[in-house]
Please model this.
Amino acid sequence: MSVLVVGTVAFDAIETPFGKTEKIVGGAATYICISSSFFNTKINLVSVVGGDFPKDSIQMLKNKKVNIDGLQIINNKKTFFWSGKYHNNMNTRDTIETQLNVLENFNPIIPDKFKSSDFLMLGNLMPSIQKKVLDQMTKRPKLIVLDTMNFWMDNFMNDLKKALQEVDVLTINDEEARQLSEEYSLVKAAKKILTMGPKYLVIKKGEHGCLLFSSDEVFFAPAIPLEEVFDPTGAGDSFAGGFIGYLAKTNDISFENMKRAVINGSVMASFCVEKFGTKKLTEISQSDIDSRINEFIKLVDFDIKSKE
Ligand code: AMP
Model:
């Protein structure tokens, strides 16, 4: 199965209670691609960077077997830049600066060979660009997943609502679910959001795990309790990469399989937060993933019946 990934490839400057980075490579699509590359699927990337983007980071994506034929390089412009500062609880952050740069006039051109990709991951990006991608697909993908954030809700809510009408799964965090639905209760928020287009909703709650909703079912996955959380940046995107990567690998989009996909996504996110930026994701191997899946199984396994 092939997965088309669209989203930012970026520079980030991050400050957490544990340290601070200068500009490092990040971006929603970068995290998604690295994370989904562990699932033996064909990954097709569509994004844009400026001439200032390091060639070795492009090579790193190629080494992960990501097809970068849809990555535009605009030599006389600068790469998208985001800086953020995490609060002491590491669950919330303030955006210090967002420089759209190359993203401002980005016209996503989907190479013909990507237009019939089996799965589509619309990573965090301007909603009108996400919609332009949807419009270019020649065959409706088996599953369309969209991720977004408060920045786009604050500035482009109408465009976002248009894009949402066409997607199958929306992944957002709890604050964003409340903002989008104007409901405080996450159960009420989910009910409302599921009338806006998506058939499934994933609400990410950082160290408190995540919820998967359909119109008549709900599933909860905790987050692996970690001794050290160094930098939560990219956790949501690593989750998305693991989620869609697993669904594409297994080619099964039932609710039952989405539960497994949520666990795989949570495992990928748990690695991401252990070091700054993409570092940890580029260091792990398949056996690290397998053993963390086993930790997950142990974490949620209990037998209540034998005591009755
Ligand atoms: P996450 O922590 O998973 O929400 O994603 C963090 C990544 O999102 C960072 O690497 C940023 O480069 C990227 N990012 C931040 N703001 C935006 C935005 N407004 N649109 C798209 N990507 C963004």
Observations:
- The first strand starts at residue 2 and ends at 6.
